[in-house]
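Q: Could you fold this chain for me?
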Amino acid sequence: MILTEKKLFVLETAHTGYAFRVTEGGVLQHLYYGSRLPRSEDYDSAPVMLNQPGNALLDGDGLCREDLLQEAGTLGWGDLREPLADVTFPDGGRSCDFRFSHFERPEEASPDGLPSALGGETLKVVLKERTHELYLELYYTVFEDEDVIGRWSRLINDGKEPVWAERLMSLQLDLPADAYELITFRGAWAREMEFVRQDLQGELRWSSRAGVSSNRCNPFAMVCRAGAGEEHGDVWGLNLLYSGNHLGTAQINAYGSARLTQGMGPLRWQLEPGASLDAPQAVMAYSPEGFGGVSRCMHPFVRRRIVRGYWQDRERPVLLNSWEALYFKVSARRVVQLARSARDIGAELLVLDDGWFQGRSDDSHALGDWTADSKKLPGGLAALAKDVNAQGLDFGLWVEPEMISEDSDLYRAHPDWILGHADQAIGRNQYVLDLTRPEVCRYVCDSMKKLLEEANIRYIKWDMNRILGDVFSPALPAARQGETEHRYVLGLYSILAELTEAFPEVLFESCASGGNRFDLGMLCYMPQVWASDNTDAACRSAMQWNYSYGYPQSVLGCHVSDAPNHQTLRRTPLDSRFSVASMGVLGYELNPGELSADRRERIREQIAYYKAHRRLFQFGQMYRCPSPEGERFTMAVAEDGAQAAGVHFAALNRPNPIQAPLYCRGLAGERVYRVTNRPTEVRLKDFGSLVNYIAPIRIHAGSLVEKVADQVVKLPADQLDLTASGEAFCRRGFYPVQPFGGTGFNGPTRLMKDFDSRLYLWTADAE
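A: Sure. Below is the predicted structure, expressed as structure tokens.
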């Protein structure tokens, strides 16, 4: 709900309120962002005291903007904090003074050429620069049910001379003096989303200069009052619907107040007379219930307002990807064999990864030439898809459309189509195509359409295996080179919009060497993202925990791979790999045909279990539960509270371990639940030479006797079966089955190896 009374503006969601007013001089003064207040008058009931220190500047109305909470800070009028907008005028000056002009209530409003969240109620506030014909439009969209507010900005040049936008941020949030902390998510390839918590002192930034939203620093961030935790304290979450360079700033000024800004990264955009520039949409959420409260705003927002179309609320298929099974050794025979083994374990989709197109024997050749290799696939993709479909599976395909190899027909025909100069730093032996050029975008779009029209392809894994380096477009004049990175993103979005509209039922997955482009912008076109190339269960447990602060598990591609893991060489239990991957969109990254019969049977049971509870795993509300040191306990709770699933992951096993209860979250307090655990596998060989303590004959590790005994002797798996109220599970907790502590295996005993886990299921209304 949006209230506009005189010069007071109040934006209310179901549980939060946001307010600002227009000062006598026309400056937008921020008043409040927090829990919803009973009356609209309450938002402006207490006068804000302003400092007027001796050496500060006052504007013509006597305001000291250095300590004024504002909606749109600029340079040159005494405000020393980061600005929302920074403009250079024809005379070289950058002092800018935007004052209130009027407001509107548009039925629809979205930034031109950029994705935006679905629905909502919008307020448009128009500011005019006092001495130039330059307008700044601020857009606020209220998503009431999700407790989220969207923000974006537009600059319009109505003058007779060009001006240059040096910065146009999407969001500015000023908070009153207090002690604050900043939480960001940083990392690199194969170690995405590392949780970083810092005291907010001076100025801190979270940003990307990689040309993509980046695994170095995800756009999602949180600011909290000092001491906030998972379920307590004031927390503000921020995110950006953008897939290129981004910039977020958080700073404390000399008087203790905080300013947060977020938007696209630095640029220099030439605004000709009559032209405009739109910033991408940003979103923010507030909760007094800690980090978990912000997650419970962001998750439904992403599911309902970001993901759209055919796959918005549709369960995702279980897939098997060919990459770690075949790498570049692709042939029609091998792919069909892989499809048969995928069908045998219960997979629903076979994805052919890299290595399928003409001349693609390694990562040095053929990107840009999207024609099936006639030697590897004699019948082409259409025949291969038909053969895979004959196995009862859908067919999916890996592509990397934004890239070009020097050794390719496309490069030989159009060497000028690369972004940057010919002599530049290279990643994975490839250049980036210049998507600022309409003819290049047309080629990419037509190439992908041709693939999707010629074969029955139901899934596309859209990859991008390098970052932008030499950001230069020969198609742009020197004065506009500062626009290149943003124009690249606009070109990409134009391609994705056309393809997803033409093929609405194709499931697109965004991939950029894993999570190098995990952002809300891509999720507007692609309903899921490959979270990381690292599929190690120990790493993924932490990574998925951290993704969950801002993103629901329904958008996380999570695969079970072979052991030792191909990224870490770590060996983790098969059931543990499944338990961790189940809290997302499940897939497999291995060759089932090369596994033993009992391993295949175990995977078959995993997939059957996942399918039986798929909606819960993919769309249940995620909770990060209290966890002992070195362990993680996560839960997904169905919207109606009738079911819940939980994964308890423990890194390193300890002898004589401490018995600590696990505390649930999200269960309906008055309902009665029965909890059981998914049976795990206990093998005689897991005990090594310890079996000789009870064996009538000596059994040597790796011997034929051990192999036979391992097949014949069946050890009981731990079984938990408890009934209690949801309130009891949340407040009193529950104890898992006693773990093996090094003194014998006396059932029921929970055999927890290193990096092991247990998967629990709660069912409501138990007798």
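A (continued): The radius of gyration is 28 Å.
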